Amino acid sequence: MRFKVHTIRWLALALGAVWSFGAVAQSGSPGAEGGTDVGGTAVSVLQQDAEAGDVALNHLFRLELARRLGRGRGVLAVLEWGRGAGLQVDSPLGINETVVAEPGISLRELAWVSKHRKGRLCFKAGLLDLPGHLDVNGRAGDETTRFLGAMFVQSPIIPFPAMAVPGLAVHHTFGERVTLGFLTAETGALEQGTGALEQGTGALGQGTEAQEEGGARLRPFLGLEAVFHAPGLRAGNYRVLFWQTAVAPEDGDNATGASDVVHRGLAFSFEQELWSALALFARGGLRHSPELLETFLAAGGTLAGGPWRRPDDELGLAVGGTLCRDQCHDDRSHDRWWPGTLQAELFYRVALGEHWEVTPGLQWVHDRRPQETSRHLWVAQVRVKLSF
User: Fold this and answer.
1) Which of 68, 128, 131, 162 lies deepest, with the highest CB count within 10 Å?
2) Can you list the alpha helix ranges (DSSP code H) found in the chain?
3) Can you give the pTM of this predicted structure?
4) Domain count along the chain
5) How many degrees, rounded to 5, is the angle at CA 282 between CA 280 and CA 285?
6) What domain range includes position 173?
7) Of the candidate ranges 211-220, 222-231, 302-311, 347-356, the one whose mean pLDDT is the lowest
8) CATH number of the domain that residue 89 is part of
9) CA pair distance 279, 346, nearest whole angstrom
10) pLDDT tens-digit profile of 106-142?
11) How far is CA 179 from CA 51, 113, 173, 208, 287, in A?
């Protein structure tokens, strides 16, 4: 999720002020462990709609800056620059999560980080990337490395805001098995002066743009998370999340001053390494509102290339789908579950060196909403990545 910065000057002043404050704080702390860490990723994605023959090329550059202000304290900034709108297809699910919402420079996260109790207790406050805190999966969550399909990168039914928002995140690890987390954020606070807050409501495609006259409307987001770490030699994480937020009403209702609609739900995200070369993942959830009940499930796995003497290569396969009641469709005459959308993706990541990799892949999307216009979509893709 990205917070669009309207002027480069504003962004430069904000980052400069943070870094200057960091330098002053560090100089005033004798013996502090300071320094700056810099990392970056450059990605280009070429995709083609096999049916229509349309081709699109987009680019993404991500820069991560971390300023250490002492032991367990620092400032983190993540910036992105994107070019290219991506492949335009008639699908409620995204097929390329590296595409920036609007071309140009954007700020993905800018936050103060503080760790205590030997790193077991962590606070983060500032402009936060909510999916990066609440919808994490080590095997399917980084669109620059593995899957590109939206359903596999993050939950399609949690209405995350389309930009970084002010918030506070707290995580505490108990022993070696359990981590509990809490996050609160204000998703409506940045509407004033930025034009619109785009609420992506996932597979149903009911995103709206709202701007309140005379000020922004407050829309709190609350998340409670529990993470269970698998014991033994094989790494595994099992996450359960409860979330609640307010979503803007549809345009017609918003014009009459209608109240926001409260959405809440449960989500899970599992990842487990079976042996050194094979790992599996699954994610799913349920969303409920006064007029909506939707669920989804996605699962897949990755296989490292060790068996064919390419240990740094990786093969990945994932499938997923959504189900919703008749409110998702035009026909509301009877109460039953309908399949909404189905998505599958296959990729093979070829490591060309320590910093270069090429990943050809194929996606399939079946949109069954509404059934009379149901269609299949095949997308061929190639991703090139440079990291440092």
Assistant:
1) 128
2) 8-27, 131-134, 150-153, 251-255
3) 0.80
4) 1
5) 175
6) 3-387
7) 211-220
8) 2.40.160.10
9) 15
10) 889 999 999 998 889 999 999 999 988 888 898 888 8
11) 46, 17, 4, 34, 24
